């Protein structure tokens, strides 16, 4: 990504979930952590892509339990604004992470593609 973002940067979160119920593996390059049951997963962060050429991301393993709710959100949810220009913010996003995806999108003003 270095040199390809016109001076910007890009966050990324990669996750691998084993079909046999093994641990969820994740690595973050400056992206928001996923939420498990409304709690942000403790994923070691790193610089976003495009900041330097030598960014490395640590891989984190986390075991999900049967019935756990896992939600991935982007900064578009946290930075969503109401009609007065107030940001949704991290606390509201954490609370929303317990909701269905459609409710999160509606609250953030995101129109899902069909």
What does this structure look like?
There is one protein chain. The chain is flat. The strands form two sheets. The protein has a three-stranded antiparallel β-sheet, with no helix packed on it. It has a three-stranded antiparallel β-sheet with strand order 4-3-6, with no helix packed on it. Strand 3 (35-36) and strand 4 form a beta hairpin. With 114 residues, it is α+β, with helices and mostly antiparallel strands. It has two domains: 1-72, no CATH class; 73-114, no CATH class. The protein has three helices and six strands; from the N terminus they run E-E-E-E-E-E-H-H-H. It has helices spanning 75-78, 89-96, 101-108; strands spanning 12-17, 24-29, 35-36, 39-40, 60-62, 70-71. The longest helix has 8 residues, at 89-96.
């Amino acid at each position: 990504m270095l040199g390809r973002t016109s001076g910007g940067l890009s966050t990324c979160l990669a996750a691998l979930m084993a079909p046999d119920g093994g641990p969820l593996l994740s690595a973050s390059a400056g992206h928001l952590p996923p939420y498990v049951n409304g709690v942000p997963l403790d994923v070691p962060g790193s610089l976003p892509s495009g900041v330097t050429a030598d960014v490395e991301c640590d891989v984190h393993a986390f075991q999900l339990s049967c019935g756990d709710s896992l939600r991935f959100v982007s900064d578009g949810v946290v930075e969503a604004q109401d009609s007065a220009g107030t940001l949704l913010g991290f606390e509201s996003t954490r609370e929303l992470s317990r909701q269905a995806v459609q409710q999160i999108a509606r609250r953030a003003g995101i129109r899902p593609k069909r």
